[in-house]
Amino acid sequence: MLCKTALSVFWVSRTLNFHLLPKTVKRRVYALKRLQLQSANIEAKFYEEVHELERKYAGLYQPNFDKRRDIVAGAVEPTDEECEWQSDREEEELAEDLQKKAALEEKQADSAGADDPRGVPEFWLTIFKRVDMLAEMLQEHDEPILKHLQDITVKFSEPGQPMSFTLEFYFEPNSYFSNTVLTKVYKMKSEPDAEDPFSFEGPEIIDCEGCKIDWHKGKDVTVRIVKKKQKHKGRGTVRTVTKEVPQESFFNFFNPEKASPDGMDVDLDFTLTTDFEIGHFFRERVIPRAVLYFTGEALEDDESYEEEDLEEGEEEDLDDEGEEEDEGDFDPTKDPPPAECKQQ
């Protein structure tokens, strides 16, 4: 592994190679960089139009999402025609003994559920439990509240407004808070950075805003009550005081941390990055494919991608180990280290 001094010399040498070019060639390279900057600006416009297309098609998807919400909540009962699904091929692939077991379990479920449940019980809570990224945020005290979650939607910013999208979580009336909808706004930027324009790779989330949850008294799951005894120094009397301290909860999602104008530390940077990833995951995966996460089918697709990424990562690790072994053959008596790496 190269030391910092050697790496610095390496990068400087690469820069110097450009400066050693003839003046006429450098002028042409500058012209190419101007073209590259123009391309980056065109790409930014492309993503702005993509955002407009997303907004347009969100309106076309909405009737389906509204119907999904009504079925999940039990507001409507789908017709026999709407409930038809070609599962014959899936059943043929099951072994005979598994088919018998499945039929028995279905019969038992039907007899146990003589009182037909309304809609699809715990639809969104089940999704939260199934998806690793969401399950990590979920605490036991969150589950009774998420049983009241009826729908999650995404809204895109209107034309002429700064690029953003809003996640909306709709709840039926409950004993925990008075809000009927909780929101999280993700603000985006789709333009090359003035200081580093060539790093532009498309829209990025730059900030997010949550909302105030109007908790009923004693129902706030984002805090816990701690009792402490205090002894008076003079009189020696003891009193008990209570105070609220923060605790982990999914509902902290609606009270995101803010980046300081003076910069961020590593922990805050990681927290915000994770928050942005979760917001993007809701928008791109969970909301449009909710039923497939409920059944687990979408999880199989996600796991396939994770396995491929892991295999690639393992190969990279092996390559790194191989490099370390090569460096281990270095003999200082025969081949002294380069002058750049000498420590004073």
Automatic annotation (TrEMBL):
This is Nucleosome assembly protein 1-like 4a. Keywords: Coiled coil, Nucleus. The keyword Nucleus applies. Signal peptide: none annotated. Belongs to the nucleosome assembly protein (NAP) family. Residues 335-344 have a biased composition (Pro residues). Pfam families: NAP. It is found in: Nucleus. Residues 298-344 are annotated as: Disordered. GO terms for cellular component: nucleus. Residues 87-115 form a coiled coil. One of its GO terms (biological process) is nucleosome assembly. Residues 298-330 have a biased composition (Acidic residues).
